[in-house]
Every structure is written in structure tokens, then in C-alpha cells.
Backbone:
């Protein structure tokens, strides 16, 4: 079946999904609920304590410090709200080979934050910079590159490439990539479904609410795992406790059977 794709330009989110009146009415409920996940991690976590303000970061950035340039870009993006300056400083750091900056620059292009670059060219640039970071083993970029390959945005659509990049990121523990890889395996094939459960479980154990919801659904349906209402409720509660409304609705539905 075709899985709905969602293009994300901010922090990872999902479109509203209403739980089916009957669990059996949507065999692939987990897959139906979620398109590929992209996501953002905070920039500058590896920076020194001396670079905590725009002025202090600018001084180091102007001296060519790539980490400070990336941090400054993040400040311009999220605090000052100046995308032109953010892209400028991300680019400076990215050109020096800083993977995190390359990822951040790719994110800006994917979100069409560079008004001087049109849609198709922006996506090509996003793919270019994600790949540079992904080739260095940066898991968030590997996940995002996988999303572009699945959607055919900025690159030729290629499911083999998308799965390959998701796997690289998933094996490093990236929860979004683990969900995306699980989603790929979430089909009507029993062996593939078992792999989906495996990857959903990996992400769920990290506390990722969407994965907890999806894993609960797999248990509720007996999809790729033995049907187990207790386990389904357990994971739904985990996700609901984090504010996942899908899980809350599913838990109510489960309890009212």
C-alpha cells in the first residue's frame, strides 16, 4: 500500500490521525499513521562555554572557528530570527567540513528558508549538504537524506538508497531513522513485519513517543508480533504520557472493546 508522505520544515511532527473504530479495520494502522520522519537536533552542543552569546560567537566565528560559526548560525536562526545571517554562517562552517553545520544548512534549504533559491534548486542543495554530512557518518543527516530519496526531492527517487541511509542512522541509534526503517518493513509480509517491530521497539525504548504509539499498534493488531493487548496498552500509555493524542485515543479504543 502507499504510505502517506509528509514534508517537514520544522521539528518532527505528524498529521492528525483518527483511530479507526475497529482495530481490524486498518491492518496497516502503524504505517498509515506516519510518513517519513525528518527532525532537528540542537546545534552547537559541542561548542565551548565561551561562545554563549551572539557577540562572543561572532568574535570566534570571524576568526574562522567552524564550531562558533555553526553556533552563531543557530542563534541567528532561532533567537535573532535572521535566516540570511543563519545561512551565511552555516555555510561558512559547512565549507570547513563541519558535519553538523552541513546538516543545518541542508535543513535550511529543505525548509526553503533561502529566498534566493527556488524550490527544485533548494531541494538539490538540501540533498547536497545532507550527503556531505551523511558521508561523515552524521546520523540526523543520514536520516534526512533517506527521506529525500524516498520522496524524490532533490534526488532521483530511490527506495534502496532511502533504506540504506535510514539503516546507517538507525544503527547509530537515531530514533527517527529507526521509525522510518520500521515503517519501510511494515507491510503484509510476516517476516518484514517482525523487522518493523524490531525497529519500532528500538526507538520506543529511547522514549520516542511516536515509536511507542506505533509499537503499541503492532501489539494491538498482532502485526509482526503475537497479539497482546497488555503490551499494546503498556506502549500506548507510554506515548500518551508524553502527550501523544493518537496513543490516548487508541488506548481508549482498546479499553472499550
Residues:
Amino acid at each position: 500500500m502507499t504510505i502517506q508522505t509528509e514534508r517537514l520544515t520544522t521539528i518532527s511532527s505528524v498529521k492528525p490521525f483518527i483511530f479507526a473504530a475497529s482495530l481490524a479495520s486498518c491492518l496497516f494502522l502503524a504505517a498509515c499513521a506516519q510518513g517519513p520522519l525528518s527532525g532537528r537536533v540542537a546545534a552547537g552542543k559541542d561548542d565551548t562555554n565561551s561562545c554563549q552569546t551572539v557577540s562572543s560567537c561572532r568574535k570566534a566565528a570571524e576568526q574562522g572557528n567552524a564550531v562558533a560559526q555553526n553556533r552563531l548560525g543557530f542563534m541567528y536562526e532561532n533567537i535573532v530570527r535572521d535566516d540570511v545571517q543563519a545561512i551565511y554562517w552555516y555555510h561558512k562552517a559547512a565549507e570547513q567540513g563541519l558535519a553538523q553545520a552541513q546538516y543545518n544548512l541542508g535543513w535550511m534549504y529543505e525548509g526553503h528558508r533561502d529566498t534566493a533559491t527556488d524550490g527544485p534548486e533548494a531541494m538539490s542543495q538540501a540533498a547536497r549538504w545532507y550527503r556531505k554530512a551523511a558521508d561523515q557518518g552524521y546520523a540526523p543527516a543520514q536520516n534526512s537524506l533517506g527521506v529525500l530519496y524516498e520522496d524524490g526531492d532533490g534526488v532521483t527517487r530511490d527506495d534502496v538508497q532511502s533504506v540504506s541511509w535510514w539503516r546507517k542512522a538507525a544503527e547509530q541509534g537515531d530514533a527517527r531513522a529507526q521509525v522510518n526503517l520500521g515503517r519501510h518493513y511494515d507491510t503484509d509480509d510476516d517476516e518484514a513485519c517482525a523487522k518493523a517491530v524490531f525497529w519500532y521497539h528500538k526507538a520506543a525504548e529511547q522514549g520516542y513517543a511516536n515509536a511507542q504509539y506505533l509499537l503499541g499498534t503492532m501489539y494491538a493488531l498482532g502485526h509482526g508480533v503475537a497479539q497482546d493487548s497488555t503490551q499494546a496498552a503498556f506502549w500506548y500509555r507510554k506515548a500518551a504520557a508524553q502527550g501523544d493524542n493518537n496513543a490516548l485515543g487508541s488506548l481508549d479504543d482498546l479499553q472499550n472493546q
Q: What stands out?
A: Residues 63 and 123 are 31 Å apart (CA to CA). Residues 1-34, 42-48 have pLDDT under 50 and may be disordered. The domain at 54-170 is CATH 1.25.40.10 (Serine Threonine Protein Phosphatase 5, Tetratricopeptide repeat).
